[in-house]
Amino acid sequence: MKNSTELLEATVDYRTRESFLELHARERAKALLDADSFRELLGPFDRVTSPWLAIQDIVPEADDGCIVAKGTIDGHAAVVVAIEGKFQGGSIGEVCGMKLATALELARKDTENGTPTYAVLLLETGGVRLQEANLGLALISEIHAQIMELRQHVPVVGVVAGMVGCFGGMSLAAALCTSLIVTRQARLGMNGPEVIEQEAGIEEFNASDRALVWSVDGGEYRVKAGFADLLVPDDARAVAKAVRHELAKGVPAVHRSSKVEHYRNLLAQMDTSRQWDAAMVAEKFGKESTK
Amino acid sequence: MSETSNRGRIWMEALAGKKHLAGLPQSVLVSDAELNGEPARFLAVVPNPNSRFPRVREGEVGLEEGWTLAHAIRETIEADKNGTKRPIIAIVDVKSQAYGRREELAGIHLACAASVDAYATARMAGHPIVSLIVGHALSGAFLAHGYQANRILAFNSPEVLVHAMGKAAAARITKRSVAELEVLAEQVPPMAYDIRSYAKLGILHKLLDVVNPDAPSSEQVELVRKEIVDAVIDARKGPRDLSNRLTSENALIFRKASLEVRQKLTEQWAKA
Amino acid sequence: MQTMKFEYPATGRVPRRAHVGVVGSGDLEVLLEPSTESKAIVKIRTSVDGFDEYWKAVLDRFFSKYQGAALIEINDFGATPGTVALRLEQAVEESEA
Asked: Is the ipTM beyond the 0.95 threshold?
């Protein structure tokens, strides 16, 4: 995996580099599909927006923060679903979540009918949209179910780029993906640092300690510890190349989330009597034997 | 509800007996018991004040809980791979996922995903999964333990809650007071905590009236057992996916936007 | 949240619809498409109440140059007048590209 990262770094021409992070979700989706193949479905002009926000004095976004784009990747049928992290923190509401879940379902139906359709999920999300709480949570469980169905047939590749990262119930979705691509700026975790500090105290987790936050949630650590597969530079072409690289691997015999005995054994060996740090966990969890 | 609730254990033992699978962390109770004449596996996550993980002593779903649930479910999938798929029953009273540095470092998001994976895999293989919410069904803990079920049942009781985040934390993050959130919840059903509001959303299969859920009589237990059996039968009649959540009467009222998305996206996809 | 509606006389052709921006903090999204009536209609939803005068000023300036009979929808999350003007220009550019 390190070789792939170095290869990707080497392909970036820093004179013509285009930051992936600076792109909005729609442009990120476009960047990953073959040129001219991008077709947005249920776009802003369809105006299917959240029925729950206006009553709470929150201005809705016309696409509810979720872009569904059908197209091709290296000529192969694909759907890219990109969550707009700038809208309500990329949080999952009823419409946003349903767009994602349905896109996965439709990809599966096409696959079962003879047109295998890759899914690439751009996960820029803090998790459930609290203004739609129980619908957000329910939709996330439906997203999980749809990933589980689709990934049997074709790879489901997740990308966490930043700066929102991927947290909450959607971090479980990231963990269910066939493969996960991350940048150094990305963060991936179940609970955000502030929430941990609030619930467990500042000694357990100091949310203001940026070095700590990135050592735990940051993309580089996640790859080292084996929770993500590929570290990619902040360059749109490199991300597109990384996505193609991971899709080309196809469906594994066993997905990471199914490697139960492997992880149970690792966990059983950990000494819980003292606090842990990234180096020690990466050392134990990150061995190549997981691949 | 007290801080650490015993209700999961109470109902686990009432329905499946006091004999649990040995050799597992004490926070995860796994029992095999008969349900309507066939074997069934029951699962619960309960408080373990002796957990070797300091942040998992009040019934939270942490690393061990995620991987252990996954292990217990996969054992059942394997055992039944050539025969009848036995029911898997999740007794749910979980107040949250675990909040801790060890948890984040060692991938609690993956541990919980492993449990989601196992439940979904079992359901997809034909095991009827029924969740019984006896107390709290909150956030990532519920995603991991219970939300992949074919049918979800819940006690019709004011202390039974389903939500994405505790009230105080939710108030902080949305920059409103708890009182303001409670007022909003009256107009915005998905924001409410109580099980009756949750039932409006069409996801719940049935609300069960139970007298004295902390100390149920044997008659009450048998009534609940019968409901679980009925839910298993109903699940076996339907598809193995979660589509029943969108076809319920309440879904037609409260999930109009979901249905609109599904219909329009399907139409546009076909033409794209 | 405040909603506003403005109308301007306009008869120019709007070649294609356009969408720019994001409803993020300090930003806005603009949906621009041909109006069904022969005038321009602007519908605004904004998270910041009480800035009617600023919106009118920005739009007056915009329509002093732009002639399209457009239906413009704005979802605003606290953008400055400068950002609003920029997004409107970007929308026109995309519409006439």
From this structure: yes
